[in-house]
Design a protein that fits this description.
By secondary structure, the chain is α+β, with helices and mostly antiparallel strands. It has three helices and four strands, in the order βαββαβα. It has helices at about 15-25, 50-60, 70, and strands spanning about 1-10, 30-35, 40-45, 65. Strand 2 and strand 3 form a beta hairpin. Helix 1 (about 15-25) packs across helix 2.
């Protein structure tokens, strides 16, 4: 099964290698390909890998996580003087 997820927190080639290594440790993952631009991972696995499984592996490698739809939505103002 092919699964593509967006990854937040990668800034360089070293991050890409760390994320690839971390994701390859997830049970059932057979192949991993990670790119910096766009920041995403393409997983080949026997079954669907959950965001929770991915985030657990990513947190062991550094400050990385799966980007969700909420991460891409504009933040609401907390009522500062500028709106």
């Amino acid at each position: 099964m092919n699964q593509i997820v967006s990854i937040k927190g990668m800034t360089c080639g070293g991050c890409v290698k760390s994320v690839e290594k971390a994701l390859s440790t997830i049970e059932g993952v057979q192949e991993v390909s990670v790119t910096l631009n766009p920041p995403q991972a393409d997983l080949q696995a026997a079954q669907t890998v959950t965001d929770q499984q991915i985030n657990k592996a990513l947190s062991a490698a550094g400050d990385y996580r799966v980007t969700t739809t909420e991460d891409n939505e504009p933040k609401k103002s907390a009522g500062s003087c500028c709106g």
